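S.,

Sequence below, as promised.
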Amino acid sequence: MTSLHPADRIIVALDGMAPEQALAFAAQVEGLRWVKVGLELFVQAGPEVVAQLREQGLRVFLDLKFHDIPATMAGACRRAAALGAELITVHACAGSEALQAAQAAAVEGAKSAGQPAPTLLAVTVLTSWEEQRLQRELAIAQGIAERVPALAQLSATAGIGGCVCSPLEAEVLRGQHPEPFALVTPGIRPKGAAVGDQARVMGPAEAITAGASQLVIGRPITKAEDPSAAFAACCGELIGSPQPSE
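The prediction came back faster than expected:
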């Protein structure tokens, strides 16, 4: 991961777009290599949008955050991998049995479809959560600083290839899980960008230095007056930034 081109480190989230908008947007951003398809777009467009984005030469992060019984998670990951999605999210709190089933099924699904095996990413604690609210509303005694590493370790032990985490947790997790364990971080806000609804954020270069493998960036690029320039600026922030130690 340490030798990746900056454009390979940035995954642009196609959130809030209709299918035709998402395809047109992805085609217009110069140098774009990765896109994220989330729940809203997938529910509207269906699996076909993954195929269409791949036909445009793009790599797809399918962010549906599967969380169900083991058999259902396995079936969903098997089908997602067969679509050619290279990153697929599952919830770590589904537990080790479900995570193991999902991982095995994803490898099987990709192989049966002639696709490369995807990396499953376990979601630890969503970046929109603030600690006091997490404890109050879900009655979770652990603080975020304890819960995130615990869920990451559960995932790694189950054979999952990486985690989605806040960039603020990347340094601790990278110290516990060296590459090639992936750390994909939303909550990235380039210089001058609004925080929005993310509670735990960091700049692109700082997140990579902290140990992130790839960065998910949405509105700072998708809502920019010139998305190609905004994407290039994000890449530019990564050039020359210290890389995470292995």
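The two ends are 9 Å apart (CA to CA).

Coffee later?
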